[in-house]
Amino acid sequence: MARTQTAKRRPGRPPTLDPSQRKESLTVHVKPEVRAILKAAADEKGISLSQEIEQRIAGYLADPEIYKLAIEIAALVANVERTTGEKTTQDAYTLDAVLAGIKSLLAAKRVPGPAVIPEAVKQRYSHLDEKTAAALQLPEAIGTATATATMTVVWSAPRPKESSAVPQSVARSDEDPSYTTRSRTGFLGRDGEAPKRKKG
Question: 161 near 43, Cβ under 8 Å?
Answer without folding.
Answer: no
